[in-house]
Amino acid sequence: MLAIPSGTPACPDTDRQRHLAARLADMVPGAATVRVSLNDPKEAWPHPHAIVKDEAGETLELGPTTARVAVRWILRAWPEADWTRPRTFDVAAAPLTHSDLVAAGRGC
User: Fold this and answer.
1) 68-72, long-range: CB within 8 Å, 24+ apart, which pairs?
2) What is the pLDDT of residue 108?
3) Three-state secondary-structure class, residue 41
4) What 3-state class would DSSP assign to 101?
């Protein structure tokens, strides 16, 4: 496992990942992935943004509070991640990936 200079693991422990996945699955039934970014296309300034998809790749609609909570939980689980780029959290497998690596099946 890689570590950042502070000695904090670059990927959180798997128990924490699974706990987060379980909480998100309870909060958003049917969610398969949560794409997180700080660039909501509807806002002119950095703003937490989530896109949730189901197993079929269909977007699930979230209320603004649910979306904000999901983003904050994921941001807090990976504070060392470079959040200038979107990330995707796989709810079933529990890794956080760069959004462009999800299709390739790569973890953090």
Assistant:
1) 69/27, 70/24, 70/27, 70/28, 70/34, 70/36, 71/36, 72/48
2) 44
3) coil
4) helix
pLDDT at 103: 44
Confidence of residue 34 (pLDDT cuts 50, 70, 90): very high
Enter the tokens of residue 66. 């649910």
Strands (E), the chain: 33-37, 49-53, 59-60, 87-90, 96-98
pTM for the model: 0.75
**What contacts 43, CB < 8 A, 6 or more positions away?**
49
pLDDT at 15: 81
Q: Give the 3-state secondary structure percentages of the chain, helix then strand then coil, rounded to 5.
A: 30, 20, 50
Q: Which amino acid is at 74?
A: I
Confidence band for 16, pLDDT divided at 50, 70 and 90: confident
Q: Which among 96, 30, 27 is positioned nearest to 65, based on CA atoms?
A: 27
